[in-house]
Amino acid sequence: MPDTQVTKAPPSLLYMVKQVELVVRSHLDELVRPAGITALQYTALTVLERHDGLSAAQLARDSFVTAQSIADLVRSLDSRGLVRRERNPRNRRELLILLTDDGRELLARYAGPVRELEERMVHDLTARQTEQFREALTKAWHALS
């Protein structure tokens, strides 16, 4: 019988990106659970930290969730006092979502542990490889946006 080695194709990049996303989300959920929030809620808070005063639609897009999910997420964060909603002075029908001092305090409390998680993720990469990884992810995101 001839030796027929079957060479398997490596997993697709899409599959690998999803694997990384799921393991990061799992670790982040575990990390922020003591604060009573989820990884998705934490992500929304970090989006507001960078761009405070977003509409629900903008926050949903930037947080990678649906409009329905963001409504529930914001309601939960608002009831915890981590965000507040106020009318947009330029469009009175629109509510803007803003980070509260409690929300900023929570983010500050978890900044170190989240940074440690990120450092663990890229531990086997050099500083240059980490920067190239960041650049590659940014280019991939822009290509599909």
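The above is record 1. Record 2 follows with the same two-line structure.
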Amino acid sequence: MSTTTAVAPLTTQDAEALVTAARRAAEAADVTVSVTVLDAGGHLLAFLRDDRAVLISGETSTRKAYTALQLNAPTADLVDLVKPDGPFHTLPTALDKPLLFIAGGVPVHRDGRLIGSVGVGGGAPEQDHGFATAAVESLA
């Protein structure tokens, strides 16, 4: 008989900490961003767009978070898979889902279990990935 240990879900307090950490990392790099945090079910837990961030960053941060959650992988690791010669090149258009294969989305795990994701938009893709990664690492 196997037992399953419950893993605490991502809380609003966790989500606020993720947003704060991502914004601090972005501010240190003098980049204005939007940050989205989703729970394990893909529901919005937190969202913040800097007043000076480009408007589309709100949409990109949310889609990056959604993609990282659905595929349980950082979006930075998925970019090459959807290029024209990649094994999943049709994935972005095959599904009617808001997937975005640009670096900046990172899944959040607790005790080895997927509990949510964070997405950052507004900087260069590598910057957004760094800000999202810094946020996730701050939660650990």
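The first helix runs from residue 12 to 28.
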